[in-house]
Amino acid sequence: MRLQFILSELGIGLRRNLSMTVSVILVTFVSLTFVGAAGLLQVQVDQMKDDWYDRVEVSIFLCPDQSEQPTCASGEATGEQIEAIGAELAGEALEPYVQDVFFESKDDAYAAFQERFADEWWAEGVTADQLQASYRVALVDPEQYQVISDVFTGRQGVEVVRDQRQVIEPLILVLNRASLVAAGLAAVMLLSAVLLITTTIRLSAMSRRRETGIMRLVGASNLFIQLPFMLEGAIAATIGAALAVAGLWFGVTYLVQDWLAQSVQFVPYIGTDAVWTIAPLLVGVAILLAAISSVVTLSRYTKV
After folding, report:
1. What are φ and ψ of residue 159, in 5° steps?
2. What would the 3-class secondary structure string for 210-268 be?
3. What is the structure's pLDDT at 244?
4. In angstroms, how far is the first alpha carbon of the chain from the final one?
5. How many beta carbons lie within 10 A of that of residue 56, not counting itself?
6. CB of 298 within 8 A of CB of 206?
């Protein structure tokens, strides 16, 4: 009987405030979509960092002919200089830092260049002699780049020592800032959702003050009186969360995996499993929003 009464009161409240309930669902949907997008973007950034930093290399570019660097004043790196650099990379002093070393000759560099830019007209005029040899060094810890740089920067026969993270980190920085912007927008939208849920519960409580007063007179408990109002907010917020999860799933499936993954193939993209990972968080946030709004509102507007 009590359950039937609570469900009856819940249905009455949803019908009376249908437009406000729809507004709560939409605002919760938008706000939690921003929350989910910020979370997915951060997961994407972490996945990219883990994948790229594991493959990051330090490139020791050897002197080509006619370089303007002081270390290349004697011309192209000689065979003795190249062998000395290779021997030092394989030596005991750098063994704790170096995981693997690959020497790329001019011919290797030319083959890689032609493979990468095979369809570009301007690449046809490039010859192997115009490129430079290099050592590609994979580090045990990519954060230890400075050790290799200190050893080989300024050495005769070495034009420049370059860390590939210098190319990667600006992109990571942009994505991190985009994640912060999305989180900021999500916070604003969550505040809007709390205010709107609070307003909806308040209007529902005020429209049923007479019924609430009668229930007080017959000895109904606070929980019994307030439960229908709490369920109204919780149901609306949960529906909004479900829509947010569905929207994120469609976004990852069709925007990321079907479009971006085909257009830009060197990025390790997240999958729909990431959406299901954050889905419980979004539902939990929705329930928390409803709970906060209920506590703030019902203690005042269900009094008789």
Report:
1. -80, -50
2. HHHHHHHHCCCCHHHHHHHHHHHHHHHHHHHHHHHHHHHHHHHHHHHHHHHHHHCCCCC
3. 92
4. 24
5. 20
6. no
Q: In the structure encoding, which two tokens stand for residue 281, read together?
A: 């968080």
CA distance linking residue 228 with residue 6, whole number of Å: 6
Written as six digits, the tokens of 270 are 């997240």
The confidence score (pLDDT) of residue 54 equals: 62
Given a contact cutoff of 8 angstroms between Cβ atoms, the answer to whether 257 and 158 are in contact is no
pTM: 0.63
Quickly count: other Cβ atoms within 10 Å of residue 151's Cβ. Answer: 18
- Which residue reads 């109204």 in tokens? 232
Say if strands 134-139 and 98-104 run parallel, antiparallel, or are unpaired. antiparallel
Comparing C-alpha atoms, which of 28, 163, 156 is closest to residue 82?
156
Domains detected in the chain: 2-52+169-301 (no CATH), 57-163 (3.30.70.3040)
Helices 272-301 and 165-207 pack at an angle, to 10 degrees, of: 30
In this model, does residue 10 exceed pLDDT 60? no
Centre a 10 Å sphere on the Cβ of residue 39 and count the other Cβ atoms it contains: 21
Relative orientation angle of helices 209-217 and 222-250, to the nearest 10 degrees: 140
What are the phi and psi torsion angles at 225 (to 5°)?
Answer: -75, -40
Give the tokens for residue 208: 């049923």
Q: Where residue 68 falls among pLDDT bands split at 50, 70, 90?
A: confident
Rounded Cα distance between 169 and 176, Å, is 10
Q: How confident is the model at residue 141 (pLDDT cuts 50, 70, 90)?
A: confident
Amino acid 19: pLDDT? 66
**Angstrom distance (rounded) from CA 25 to CA 22:** 5
Q: What is the DSSP letter of 120?
A: -
